[in-house]
Design a protein that fits this description.
The protein has helices at residues 28-36, 40-57, 98-110, 130-139, 149-158, 175-183, 207-214, 216-224, 238-244; strands at 64-70, 75-83, 87-91, 116-121, 143-147, 165-169, 188-191, 197-198, 233-235, 260-262, 281-289. With 290 residues, it is α/β, with parallel strands linked by helices.
Amino acid sequence: MNAATLPDIFDDPAAGWPQWLDARRVDDAACAAAYEGTSAPLRAFLKTGLALLASHFGRPAAQQHGGWSDPFNGFWQESHRCPAPWAIVAFPPAYAAAARLTAAFLPGLLAQVPLLGAVCVGAGSFTPTPQALLALELGGVEDVFCLDETGLCRLLEETQPGPGRLVLLHKGELDIAVQTARHLNIPCYEERCAPALALPQPDLFDMEALVLAHGEGCVKRARTAALPESPSAIYTTPEAARAHCHLSADRPFGRGAAPLALTPGCEGFWLHDGLTPEFFAIRRMALGPL
């Protein structure tokens, strides 16, 4: 059987959310209210972060097919890359870090995942924070839902075809979803704690924008506690940020090991270490002898 006569089972059907999920959809008016309730200067910080993130990653082709033939060694290879059929970004109701939420879903959009949803996971009656809704509104995420843990696990089980991709922003509250994803062989990325930020010169930065980006508690710790020994990011001058990238690799680990150095104007930007458009891609490979 050659590639032209492969059975239909190898076709990729379009993904779709289960019908019952629509009843748990967050009203568009809530996202619009979060947008209108945020000042234009603060929205501009997040828009800058979106643009910088898109510039950093670029936009990979939705479908890539390649291959080679090696007559000398007697082998051939073909490969195919395409977006995962769906992706879910889940977070608890208290999550209020707009930049970090943006950095969780935008790589999936840039990878051109056809079905991407955000799920706020809690108990009882709740809605996402205005900061989360603002990030989703600015990023163009149209499918936003509120579910309990059981509902999220049911969604992971029923959304087809699979596996898709799961991103969790939590501090242990969503561990049951981690277990479900593992059982279903769904690749899962986790942010399990707020980042440690180094702010040696806080007066250079817009604190209100940083609070919108990371949440009040995260920024308060950065301003009042001693500089962390191993920060996730250093907020500093452009000159110091450039110099940070040239630090000698043989120095002891410490602040110089921070993966990010951000300058004024980047308050609305964030990168999750290892969460790139590649995480949201599926790769298939075929090899054989000539």
